[in-house]
Every structure is written in structure tokens, then in C-alpha cells.
Amino acid sequence: MAEGFKLDQKHGKGRVRVSRVWRKVAGAGGGDVIVEWSVSVSLASDCHPAYTADDNSAIVATDTMKNTVYAKAKECSEVVSMESFAVLLARHFTAFYPQVTAATVNIVEKPWERVVVDGQPHSHGFKLGSEKHTTEVTVSKLGALSITSGVQELALLKTTKSGFEGFVRDRYTLLPETRERMVATEVTAFWRYPFEHVSDIPAKPFCFTERYEGVKKVLVDTFFGPPDVGVYSPSVQNTLFLMAKAVLNRFLDIASIQLRMPNLHFLPVNLSSKENPDMVKFADDVYMPIAEPHGTIEATLSRTMSKM
Ligand SMILES: O=c1[nH]c(=O)c2[nH]c(=O)[nH]c2[nH]1
């Protein structure tokens, strides 16, 4: 670029909220299927004159991107996974506009779940669940692909089988060592699939949805351990590592996983005073949950070449 500068730029539309209903779906026992997505589109395109001069002739309007989300949702006559929808949208933007070199699509799904009434799945009734499924897909003009999926706000808590000992002690350290504490977290995870080109994506339409449910189950089961005895956690760090490792061991089509696990503290309440030494003596029973500050623990686990 002239003037001795390099300009990197992209533009898009954030948080386009779209809901798609498919009626009387055979694969859903004849019931309706609904999804609610918040879709963000970001395009890398050759449109420098819009920045450097009064020339918008190469700009795809972000309003057009928003309309495209609705148009493509309408065109999906069959139920699609959000990963497949993100790929379809990103491919559209790179194929339809000559100046678009790459498209990134992020989707966060609102967790509507079919209600079960007297043991029977309702044909058209849904209630809001908790954790959210996410995806990020980038497609280049030549079809190079990067695809990650994730989960957000997966809140987990154990009342016992957690401790923290043997950490650095110095003159700033007040935290007592313990083998008995509560542990609570809100897991955010992102995992990367190994597909590097749009042609590598499996044909099976719901493989990503299936994988999402599978990863969630492995994360949760590893966090808690067996229902009767649980599993001792010596630190959030160790539990995070075991969760990530379990996912990579279970699913060979996941190349890496990033986990963020805030340590949401439950502080022991101990109200004894000199006058009332036994008024409220903490006996692993009364806690003060606090939102902040909280520990922040995060790591990414990838396969090394030798394991592939
Ligand atoms: O599992 C933990 N990891 C830490 O790094 C840490 N730090 C802390 O104060 N409590 C804890 N707990």
C-alpha cells in the first residue's frame, strides 16, 4: 500500500439473531425442531479504497450480510447443525463475492431443549437449558478450512473430593492447605477439528452435534468421577488436564482442546469471636460463594506428531 503503511482489515455483522423452525421432522419423532442462533460474520476482502479514499465500490454492506443469514436459513429445508450452517454461509460469501478472500462465521446457540411431559418428549414444547454450544468456521476462497466447536457456561460444582496443598508459601500467603473443599467452575471449551479443506468435512449431517454431546459428557464425567465415590481433585489445574486428555483420548477427530476453568470460590464462614468463640464454627457446612475475584485457570492440550 502507498504512503508506507500496511493496512489489515475486515468487516462484518455481529450477533445476527436468527431462529429456524423445521416442522414435523421424521428424525425428531415427528415433532418440530427449533434452533436459535446468534450469528457473527466477518469478511476479509479487498476493499482498501473504502478506508483510504471515498470509494465503497468493493464493500459488501454489513446489512447485506445480515439479510444473507436469514436467506440461507430459509434455504435450509432440512435440519442442519450449526457447524454445517456456518460452513455453508462462509462458503457462500467466499464464492459469491470475487473480492472476498476469506470468511469467518461464529455462532452461539441458545440452548432450547425439548420438554418431556410424563416421560414423553413434547412435539413442539421447549425450555431453556444452561450451557451453550458455539462454533467458529473460517473458509478461504480456495476452500482452506478451520473449524472449531465449543461449549460456554457449563457450570459444575462438587461439594467434596477437592483439595489444594503443597503450593508456594511465602510472606504473602494466607491460604491454608486443605484436602476438603468445595470446587465450582464454569467451563469454557474450544476444540479444533482436523479438517483442513471443505472437501474433508464428513458427509454425515449431524456428526458435529453428536461430537458436541460426546465432548460435554466426557468433560462432565471426568470432572465428577463415578457417581458413588467421585474422584479426588488435587487442583483445578490437574482436573482440567485430565478433562482435556480424556477428550483427546476418546475422540481421535479432535486435534486440540482449549479449556478455561475459573475457580469460583466458596469461602468457609467462620464467625467465632473472642466473646463468642463457638458461635459459627466452620464445619464444612456454611460457605460464602463469591463471584469475584476468582481464579483463572486455562490450558490448551494438542496432539504431538508422534501420537497422530
Ligand atoms: O485448584 C487451585 N489452583 C490454584 O492455582 C489455586 N490458587 C488458589 O488460591 N486456590 C487454588 N486452587
Tell me about this structure:
The protein has 308 residues and is an alpha+beta fold. Helix content is 22%, strand content 32%. It contains five helices and twelve strands. The strands form three sheets. The chain has an eight-stranded antiparallel beta sheet with strand order 1-2-3-6-7-8-9-12. A two-stranded antiparallel sheet has the order 4-5. A hairpin with a 4-residue loop joins strand 6 (132-140) and strand 7. Helix 4 (207-224) packs antiparallel against helix 5 (236-250). It is globular. The model has no long low-confidence stretch (mean pLDDT 95). Bound molecules: uric acid. Uric acid is lined by residues 164, 175, 235-237, 263, 295.
Primary descriptors:
Uricase_CS; two-stranded antiparallel ribbon; binds uric acid; alpha+beta; 308 residues; globular; Uricase; peroxisome
Spell out the blueprint of helices and strands:
Layout: E1 11-22, E2 33-45, H1 48-52, H2 62-75, H3 82-96, E3 100-109, E4 112-117, E5 120-128, E6 132-140, E7 145-158, E8 183-192, H4 207-224, H5 236-250, E9 256-260, E10 266-268, E11 287-289, E12 298-302
Antiparallel strand pairs: 1-2, 2-3, 3-6, 4-5, 6-7, 7-8, 8-9, 9-12, 10-11
Helix pairs in contact: 4-5
The chain binds uric acid (URC).
Function: Catalyzes the oxidation of uric acid to 5-hydroxyisourate, which is further processed to form (S)-allantoin.
Subcellular location: Peroxisome
Active site: 13 (charge relay system), 62 (charge relay system), 265 (charge relay system)
